[in-house]
Design brief:
The chain starts with 10 loop residues before the first helix and ends with a helix. The chain contains 18 helices and no strands. The protein has three domains: 185 residues, MFS general substrate transporter like domains (Growth Hormone, Chain: A), CATH 1.20.1250.20; 53 residues; 225 residues, Growth Hormone, Chain: A, CATH 1.20.1250. By secondary structure, it is mostly helical.
Length: 494
């Protein structure tokens, strides 16, 4: 790869070099697609998987939570490993591990095996995703091609969730739910061959040390919090619930202490100490709770109560994504005119309206009347937030902290999703159990649970709007990056 100051390549060599770079983009984008779509591809398959493996509702939610939690908790460490150990090596190992974990999940004979395999997928995804991003950064170092490459990479990452729902619907309906995991083996083989042929090694130079104690404290703290919320199904005052929630708080406090004292922290505290960036991270976590947590229960309503096929359910969910795609160009043009703060406040409030409308579902209701309008409004609200969000995560960040800021905002999405699934499961269980106790029919009791979940998700969006109003302050010029290359690069992280 040529760099500034190196001799120019011959025309033939230059053409081959350019062609090779675009093939690298194709390989890296494929792996980004796999990592993102695996957050949603099993959602459509869960009703069938639950029935075949005999999973409880609590165990069912861990199929989603295990992936999001491990992925989000290890993302910062995975980026460090890729930078220090070698990005190509980390990419290849991540692909192999992700493929093997997917094979295990696809062949699982119990709910426990499936949950463990999903956690292992999250572990290797946390190694694979930052390695791919680092390789893309090195391959496209500057110029127009870099902007195009990161736009393509970001668009594929952004559309991965919708692809996951559609692909999950097709595979579950026409093959078997297990293929929602086994299909990753094909992607992994293609990526592995492409990586071996095309990629060259790169890594950070100098004295690099891992912040292992920080990683342990972060993983233990987040895991304890999520497990504590899961135990809340049995009661908030139960010793187990209180104990794990308290342990999570203590370990996260220890994480902050460790990060303030080590020379090379996993997460430099200056990244999250900035009020605007901190507000963006909190809003991102709340958005994750809706995108990963609340929409899971919409899938259940569509299939279990409304009787939709897996494919129809996948198509029905995509309405929200279509609105986001259509609205993003207009919101992007609006952003420099009014600034990000009004969008960050209005967006969650609009999304909340959609969720509160969705809470009005009934066992006999139609998709066109009770679900579709809510998804259209929800998609519009989310588009208002998603456009400025990553820009805000970079507000005032130093160039050498840009990678950590980008990793944090993506980790916030996954961690918010895992906590959201746990909390919404408690809400759903309490509401549906109460309806069953009152003698409601099964469909009505389940609908009561889903309705309560959407109310809770709407409240989460109202909280997001309040966070934005209180923490995201400043002029348009203060809040929007002014063209710094590093900032522009990170804005396109999927």
């Amino acid at each position: 790869m040529s760099t500034p100051g190196t001799p120019s390549l011959s025309p033939q060599a230059s053409t081959e070099h350019i062609r090779r770079r675009w093939w690298i983009l194709a390989v890296l984008s494929l792996t980004q697609l796999v990592v993102v779509l695996d957050g949603t591809i099993v959602n459509i398959a869960l009703p069938q998987a639950q029935a075949e493996l005999g999973m409880s509702d609590a165990q069912r939610q861990w199929v989603v939570t295990a992936y999001a939690l491990v992925f989000g908790a290890l993302l910062l460490l995975g980026g460090r490993v890729a930078d220090y150990w070698g990005r190509r090596r980390a990419f290849l190992v991540g692909l192999v591990g992700f493929g093997l974990a997917s094979a295990w999940g696809g062949l699982a004979q119990s709910g426990g095996e499936l949950v463990a395999a999903r956690g292992l997928q999250g572990l290797f995804a946390a190694l694979l995703a930052p390695a791919a991003l680092g390789l893309l950064t090195v391959t496209f170092a500057s110029g127009r091609d870099r902007n195009v490459a990161f736009a393509v990479y970001g668009a594929i990452g952004g559309g991965g969730a919708a692809v996951g729902l559609l692909l999950g619907g097709v595979l579950t309906q026409y093959a078997d739910w297990r293929w929602c995991l086994l299909v990753n083996i094909v992607f992994a083989i293609v990526g592995l061959v492409g990586g071996l042929v095309l990629l060259t090694e790169s890594k950070a130079e100098g004295d690099n040390r891992y912040d292992l104690w920080g990683a342990v404290a972060a993983i233990g703290g987040l895991g304890s919090l999520v497990y504590g919320f899961t135990l809340a199904e049995d009661g908030w005052a139960e010793p187990g619930t209180i104990g794990f929630l308290a342990l999570g708080v203590v370990l996260l406090a220890l994480f902050v202490l460790v990060e303030s004292r080590v020379d090379q922290p996993l997460l430099p505290l200056r990244v999250v100490a900035h009020r605007v960036r901190a507000g963006a991270f909190v809003v991102q976590a709340l958005i994750g709770s809706v995108l990963i947590g609340a929409t899971l229960y919409l899938t259940f309503h569509l299939q279990i109560v409304m009787g939709m096929s897996p494919l129809a359910s996948g198509l029905a969910n995509v309405a929200m994504t279509v609105v986001i795609i259509l609205a993003v160009p207009a919101v992007t043009n609006l952003l420099p005119k009014i600034g990000p703060r009004p969008l960050m406040i209005a967006g969650p409030l609009i999304a909340a309206v959609g969720l509160f409308y969705l809470s009005g579902i009934s066992p006999e209701g139609s998709y066109a009347v009770e679900v579709l309008p809510a998804l259209l409004v929800l998609g519009l609200g989310l588009s208002f937030v998603l456009v400025p969000l990553q820009n805000l995560a970079l507000t005032g960040v130093a160039p050498h902290d840009a990678g950590a800021a980008a990793a944090t905002v993506n980790a916030a999405l996954q961690i918010g999703g895992s906590i959201g699934v746990a909390v919404f499961t408690v809400v759903y269980t309490r509401a549906s159990d109460a309806a069953f106790a009152d003698g409601a029919a099964p469909a009505a009791a389940l609908t009561d649970g889903y309705s309560a979940t959407f109310v809770a998700a709407g409240i989460a969006m109202v909280v997001a709007a309040l966070v934005a109003a209180l923490m995201i302050r400043g002029t348009k010029s203060d809040l929007l990056p002014q063209g710094d290359d590093d900032a522009a690069r990170v804005v396109h992280v999927g």
